[in-house]
Amino acid sequence: MSRREARTEIIRALAEMRRRDPVDIETEALVAGAECPYDSVWLVKAGVRAARRLGFKLKPTKSDAHAFKSIESLASHLYGLARNQNAA
């Protein structure tokens, strides 16, 4: 799995949950800024859903809180978690 795949799954999950087109979510996030900030409540749900699709479980904890500020930070976090799980 690549970081880009993680990002795509997050966008897809957000689009499904918000009942919107993924392109709209992508555009909205990019307009908000380079990090693609997004409401953390939605990102937690999208992160759990995206992780499941990527083949691992995510149970968010306080130590994960930093990742739920933007789409980019969540994509990096999921990518890192997947790499760590594959290495173990």
Care to describe what's here?
With 88 residues, this protein is mostly helical. The chain has one domain. It has four helices and no strands. Helix 1 packs across helix 2 and helix 1 packs across helix 3.
Average predicted local confidence, pLDDT: 92
How many domains would you count in the coordinates?
A: 1
- Helical content stands at 55-70%
The count of helical stretches stands at: 4
- Give the N-terminus to C-terminus distance in angstroms: 15 Å
| Total strands | 0
Which regions are unreliable across 5 or more consecutive residues at pLDDT < 50? none
Beta percentage is under 5%
The Rg value, from CA coordinates, equals 12 Å
Class from secondary-structure proportions: mainly alpha
Biggest beta-sheet profile = none
Oligomerization state of this entry? single chain
Order of helices and strands: HHHH
Global geometry: globular
In short:
The protein is mainly alpha-helical and 88 residues long.
SSE blueprint:
Elements lengths: L2 H16 L3 H11 L7 H15 L16 H17 L1
Essential attributes:
88 residues; mainly alpha; 4 helices; 67% helix; globular
